[in-house]
Amino acid sequence: MNWLNNNRLRLHKYLLNKKVMRNPVQRQFVELRKARKIGILYNASNTEDLPAIIEWTKKYKTGNRQISFLGYVDKKKTEGIEKFTSDIHFMNKSDLNWLNIPTKTEAKRFILEDFDLLINMYKKEILPLQYIGALSNAKFRVGIKLDNNLYCNDFLIDLQSGNSLEDFLRELEHYLIQNKVVSDE
Q1: Nearest to 119 by CA among 167, 156, 162, 158
Q2: What is the dihedral of CA 167, 169, 172, 177, to 10 degrees?
Q3: 141 and 154 in contact (C-beta within 8 Å)?
Q4: pLDDT band, residue 16 (cuts 50/70/90)
Q5: Span 18-61, pLDDT tens digits
Q6: For the chain, how far is it from start to end, CA to CA, in angstroms?
Q7: Is 143:159 a contact under the CB 8 Å cutoff?
Q8: Exposed, middle or buried by CB within 10 Å (0-12, 13-18, 19+), for 87?
Q9: Are residues 149 and 13 in contact, defined by beta-carbon separation less than 8 angstroms?
Q10: CA quadruple 152, 157, 161, 162: dihedral sign
């Protein structure tokens, strides 16, 4: 079974790499305050993080700023999670093909959406979310540094083990509001 999973992972990464190379996106630094369309990808299996995400976005969901959410639940169904909020979309294992590639319409919309900023708010590797992040049309993608997620982010924030999502959000504000990211422009 391990052999099959390893080959599925290799094939997943191979197909993803082909798609990324075929459709290059011009990336540019976007300051958090200037972002009008923000996409957030997060691990919805960890429901303890959701209140912190919702509270953080209240600060930035002002005026004409649009924030879209897509969470991944590592189960066949998402029952019970929808109770948190109605404007957060979810996908689960049933919304993936056998290579862990998202097939749900909401995932495809996230890939095609012209976000100013895509925030990858997951603290462990989640192939379906990384797939969306890698193919995203977002101008700038930021996430938590993991061993194998450089390909789906333009800027990584290195959290020490045991740090919370709130720590990541503070660091995100520090770098993207203070404009401390060095731009190639």
Answers
A1: 156
A2: -120
A3: yes
A4: confident
A5: 888 888 888 999 988 899 999 999 998 877 888 888 888 888 88
A6: 47
A7: no
A8: exposed
A9: no
A10: negative
Q: Are residues 70 and 89 in contact, defined by beta-carbon separation less than 8 angstroms?
A: yes
Nearest in space to 105 (alpha carbons), one of 95, 117, 115: 95
d(Cα 61, Cα 65) in Å, to the nearest integer? 6
Q: Which residues contact 51 (CB under 8 A, 6 or more apart)?
A: 84
Q: What is the pLDDT of residue 82?
A: 56
Q: Which amino acid is at 3?
A: W
Beta strands in 49-154 (DSSP E): 66-73, 88-92, 117-121, 140-144
Domains and CATH numbers, the chain: 2-177 (3.40.50)
Per-residue pLDDT at 134? 93
pTM, rounded to two decimals: 0.86
DSSP 183: P
Q: Are 19 and 107 in contact (CB under 8 A)?
A: no
Host H or E run for residue 7: helix 2-22
